Amino acid sequence: xxxxxxxxxxxxxxxxxxxxxxxxxxxxxxxxxxxxxxxxxxxxxxxxxxxxxxxxxxxxxxxxxxxxxxxxxxxxxxxxxxxxxxxxxxxxxxxxxxxxxxxxxxxxxxxxxxxxxxxxxxxxxxxxxxxxxxxxxxxxxxxxxxxxxxxxxxxxxxxxxxxxxxxxxxxxxxxxxxxxxxxxxxxxxxxxxxxxxxxxxxxxxxxxxxxxxxxxxxxxxxxxxxxxxxxxxxxxxxxxxxxxxxxx
Length: 248
Known about the structure:
The termini are far apart. With about 250 residues, the protein is α+β, with helices and mostly antiparallel strands. It is built from eight helices and seven strands; from the N terminus they run ββαβββββααααααα. The longest helix is centred in the C-terminal third of the chain and has 16 residues, at about 230-245. Helix 5 (about 175-185) runs antiparallel to helix 6 (about 195-210). It has two domains: about 5-110, Beta-grasp domain (Ubiquitin-like (UB roll), Roll); about 115-245, Alpha-helical ferredoxin (Fumarate Reductase Iron-sulfur Protein, Chain B, domain 2, Orthogonal Bundle).
């Protein structure tokens, strides 16, 4: 395939960015999207030009670092996948592909297609943990009976990889799907009850402090989420927050 790539180039957070056109040929439909970018960067380096900076790590759909906005969709024109799992067979010969970084105040651009997602880390640090008794008289977690429905829901919430697609897809740049997933995975389990009140209050307050917007109830976050995190988690987080507000 022969493709035209329109890629956002920006030297740093303070520089003015712009879309730059690149032509790439002989793209195999079996290539992953990141492999296609690797080919482009090899060509740019051979020409003595600056390669396009983009984030990636495992390339197995687990780490969530390959966050790209492709043709107006987070992770591109497929569902329940990350960018590294997107293959070029989803495009046609002669296509023009727009490639941009996440657009959110809380995700400032570092360079080109890489954004700073450390805001998610700070939200996690605010409450995404449990207290564990390490006195030598601990109870095996597997010995605590948990209803299967709750265990399944907690596991589904825990599959969130923190990629930020929910933020990128929301017109308010809301992080509520991410935060609610992290709240839910503990709220549904007995191990998470010790910090339940402080957790939801601290994580929501940190989310607001980072500059994320509020939920729009549009549902774009669930549609674009590579792990299919449900909007039900946002409803659960709202209930947890309300209960914590009364207790506080």
